[in-house]
Write a structure and sequence with these properties.
alpha+beta, single chain, Thrombin, subunit H, elongated, six-stranded antiparallel barrel
Length: about 280
């Protein structure tokens, strides 16, 4: 009897549930309530479907092959970019080497081509090591050129290498001449100290104090002492913008010029060292 009563109530319960679902579907609040109740189940279903789809795609033939091919192409592109950069650097160095080799002949002197093999990190523009030494005929004091312009001189020599100091270094000294005025003096680098307008350069000391030197005056080698040829370009004189005479009088005894090199000293890879012909065995 109790079982029969329960069976009699089933249609009634189902009817009530149908009415409730219909009411929920017809009202805005009911639809929001239904969506909130079903959202977790819908999210789980979507996640399961996405995972199943990804698994099926990975099992398809060629998936790993395409991934490996893409990685190989990316690696190849990186290699080609590196090769292109190296090619451009070699082309630039080749042009520099050709220009260095085209140095006009200087009587009684011979140019030795050498590569810059290292630089002092703390004095990048002041000191370097080159790949030529006594076996190639280099001597201490020999002048070092880039594109026909003086950048320094040899400080120490070894069998197949040499240490070079540039005209910015305080260790670099040699005789120079003012090309237009004709007066001679001694060049010395200023090191880390800044000159006129904050420029790093060199100075020329022991000039006659009565000279009038215009800014821009060309400084060339004097050739005195026989250590280097005469007339090689070294740099130019500079002065304060308010001064028409670049010469500065020191201790009422001599004149001094602040100067800058002909070219930047940090970017070249090859140099020419000028040595007397008698120091090299003629072939």
């Amino acid at each position: 009897m109790p079982l029969r009563r329960k069976n009699q109530f089933k249609p009634l319960v189902l009817a009530v549930l149908v009415i409730i679902v219909a009411a929920l579907a017809l009202t805005m609040s009911g639809r929001r309530f239904s969506s909130a109740m079903l959202a977790p189940f819908v999210g789980v279903a979507d996640w399961a479907a996405e995972g199943l789809g990804q698994s099926v795609r990975m099992l398809q033939p060629g998936h790993h092959a395409r991934k490996d091919q893409l990685h190989s192409l990316e690696t190849r592109i990186a290699e080609l970019e590196t090769t292109l950069a190296m090619t451009e650097d070699l082309r630039r160095q080749n042009a520099e080497l050709r220009q260095a080799a085209d140095l006009p002949p200087v009587p009684d002197w011979r140019g030795v081509l050498a590569e810059v093999i290292s630089r002092d990190p703390e004095r990048w523009n002041e000191r370097m090591t080159i790949g030529a030494g006594t076996e190639e005929g280099l001597v201490i004091g020999a002048v070092v050129l880039v594109d026909g312009q003086v950048v320094g001189r040899v400080l120490h020599t070894y069998r197949h290498t040499a240490e070079v100091v540039t005209i910015l270094s305080e260790e670099c000294r040699f005789g120079v001449r003012l090309e237009k005025v004709g007066a001679t003096g001694i060049l010395r680098g200023t090191g880390a100290r800044r000159g006129v307008d904050g420029q790093t350069g060199f100075r020329v000391d022991f000039l006659p104090k009565e000279l009038v030197v215009s800014p821009g005056e060309d400084i060339v080698t004097s050739g005195l002492g026989g250590w280097m040829p005469d007339g090689l370009p070294v740099g130019r004189a500079i002065a304060d913008q308010t001064s028409e005479n670049a010469l500065k009088i020191i201790d009422a005894a001599y004149g001094q010029l602040q100067c800058v090199p002909c070219k930047p000293l940090g970017g070249f890879h090859f140099v020419i060292v000028m040595v007397p012909r008698y120091s090299i065995m003629d072939e």
